[in-house]
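hi! just following up on the protien thing from before. the input was this:
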Amino acid sequence: MASFPLSPRLLAAPLWGALVLRERLLERRRPVVELYVGGRHVLPDARALRSIADAPDVRGLHVQVDGLVEGWASLAAAREALLAIRQAGKFVSFELERCTNAELYLASAADRVWIRPMVQVQLFGVGAALRFAGDAFARFGLRFDMESAGAYKSFGETFTRSFPSAENREAMADIVAGLEAELEDAIATGRKLTADAVRAAVLASPLDPEDAQRIGLIDGALYPDAVNTELESLFGREYARVPFARWHRVHAARVRLERWMEVRRRVAIVHMLGAVVDGDGNPGAQVIAARPAVRALDALAEDDDVAAVVLDIRSPGGSATASDVIWRAVERLGRRKPVVAVLGDVAASGGYYIAVGAAEILTGPNTLTGSIGVVGGKLVVGEAFGRLGVHTELILAAPGASTFSAETPFDPEQRERFRAGLQRFYRAFVERVAAGRRRPFDAVEPLARGRVWTGRRAVELGLADRIGTVDDGITRAGQLAGVSVPASFDVRLGLPAPRWMRVARAVVGQVAPELRLLPRLSEVAQLLAEHPGVPLVLWPWDAEIR
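and the predicted 3d structure came back as:
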């Protein structure tokens, strides 16, 4: 008797059929998807939200928000997804339990915006908090002996100064002004207001619900039961509701199976999240570790089923050598197939270094990027130990043997040599950018010097090609590869942070936003202590922008 091997796609057919049947049943009811954001429930990524636009079974989206912790670029991408949902003929409404810059920015993309009757609209405008711990470390006898290549490379100021340098203040003022312009323009466009009306609202905040409604920032102040009544009047008393997570699980499973059953070349999306580190990284840490990143990129280069690659980069940078090794792998991959980089909330310094190996760079309008510069130094603990009664005597066979000793700061000759090494790496960094952006070195260097730019400014300056999201990156990568309707799949370099950690960060970020900087300070202090003298490409971690 002849035997016939069963194709995996044939075995998957019953599951695919069941998912199609379930979606068809949902389509008959045409539900409204309901999404709650707040506490441990964070905002879904923009690609997940945008999938509602193409779903025939969905009539609309209702979002209840009790606080947002996402960065500006993530909010901009989510806002574009909401606009796409509306352009697909579906209704979008927001119910806000608090109303600050972030909530009103995102909700301005909706058809209706309601807040609670006792909530004030706090449209205060964008500001940044720069914190400096130099005096605090000095009290304990600790000193960070830092050098940098680039006048705007302000990373070390967090640990060495009590106030910002003129360059740091200038760069941050430019970023804040750019984000403020984006905020006001989005609200004016979404709510059909004049720029002067929005600016007046910013200057008059906080606003009572009545004043906010009169200006046109919101559509009313309603309790939950009144919101339900409004939705019933829009969709009918018997309209079906389905939680976003439940709906998206079914929808995403069907899409994955449907694409898997198709035979065509695909676009790989490589998610590069977290700090850039050497080696394999720590198990479970959300980092961009050099070894697994290079292995993944090399494997994609050899995979004939992969037509193109999108790099989803969300990173403040990290190790300079690791960034350089990954950049090399990206460039090598680009010789085989198109590579498009898409920059998230922060893709600066080492994160931007990786991106310049791609054929094109897309960025969010509010992405913090650039920071093309190098820092390095060491933590000096000799004085602190001395205060504790611990004394160290250095016995050296050569004067340079104490260069990276934690006991003493650099002497003049050591400092000069260390500074020269940073300058060499800085020049190589700028050369990588110039080559990747196909511009002369002298045209790129003035845009470097460690300065951070918003994504919109980066496009204007030629550091990125256009404003766009991951979905736009997939489309563009497909065009470069000659694939008209590209399917995609995800490649993740490491395990995400444990759920309890993500929940804790979200809760702390909403209850006490100013505490979010404390873990950053401790992480960076540890990074410097563990890597004395190692060139680092990190953006200024001392900034909290809301």
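The longest strand covers residues 306-315.
The chain has two domains: 11-124+205-248, 264-392+406-545.
cheers
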